[in-house]
Task: inverse folding
């Protein structure tokens, strides 16, 4: 805050009027500067963003505009806005407290995807059981399909957790019985099972893209981000990996080459898809 003497000095400098700012001149001109300062403030009261600055230095809201609130920035009145029906906390015991902007269509689509993941897990587990038999004994393929089964189950549980987080209700559907035999007269068991796995991964990717489309249609960016961040990239990587395995198995045929492929897969660790 400028003093009356310094305000007079600054005004003199702006008007290109030389002032002798020594202690003697300040003392002799203090009364005139004080009067001039008061007159200037009174004559030129300034308004900034709806606030009136008075001569005493205090600020008050300008009421001339018909608005009792400051004009600068967004006015947030939480205690008024939460009275909106959309923010009322439900009291019914079976109603979700967390649910917000979560459409029934999204909830239903997530339950369908959970069913897809569990079906895949069940089928991969059947493949594990087949290749782990004593009369098949392809331990690399057995481990690969067991890890794949666990991965699909993990995906189903992730979707179940997300459903609960958004206030939806998990509804598990029926799962069909998978086949127990995977031998094929022309392709053999290893190639036939791996081609089936590739088809399953492509089908799963298609279902995930459909779920993402539902999220977009329902204007649910959070669900879309969840699918993108946790599933889509991993899914296309799995499709590429299994495509490589199918190509390799087509080269080696049904004979001794399958055993070598199985040993390589076992050493690789049977990475889950």
Result:
């Amino acid at each position: 805050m400028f003093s009356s003497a310094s305000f007079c000095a600054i005004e003199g400098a702006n008007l290109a009027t030389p002032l002798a700012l020594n202690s003697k001149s300040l003392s002799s001109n203090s009364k005139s500067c004080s009067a001039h300062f008061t007159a200037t403030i009174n004559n030129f009261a300034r308004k900034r963003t709806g606030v009136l600055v008075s001569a005493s230095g205090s600020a008050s809201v300008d009421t001339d505009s018909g608005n009792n609130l400051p004009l600068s920035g967004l006015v947030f009145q939480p205690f008024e806005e939460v009275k909106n029906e959309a923010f009322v906390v439900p009291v019914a015991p079976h109603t979700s407290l967390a649910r917000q902007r979560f459409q029934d269509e999204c909830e239903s689509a997530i339950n369908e995807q959970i069913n897809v993941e569990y079906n895949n897990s069940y089928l991969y587990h059947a493949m594990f059981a087949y290749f782990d038999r004593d009369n098949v004994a392809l331990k690399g393929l057995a481990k690969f399909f067991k890890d794949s089964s666990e991965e699909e189950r993990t995906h189903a549980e992730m979707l179940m957790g997300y459903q609960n987080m958004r206030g939806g209700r998990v509804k598990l559907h029926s799962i069909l019985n998978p086949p127990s035999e995977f031998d094929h007269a022309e392709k053999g068991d290893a190639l036939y099972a791996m081609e089936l796995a590739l088809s399953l991964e492509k089908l799963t990717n298609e279902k995930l893209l459909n779920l993402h489309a539902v999220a977009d249609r329902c204007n649910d960016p959070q669900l879309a981000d969840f699918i993108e961040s946790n599933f889509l990239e991993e899914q296309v990587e799995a499709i590429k990996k299994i495509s490589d395995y199918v190509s390799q198995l087509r080269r080696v045929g049904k004979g001794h080459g399958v055993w070598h492929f199985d040993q390589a897969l076992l050493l690789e660790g049977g990475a889950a898809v």
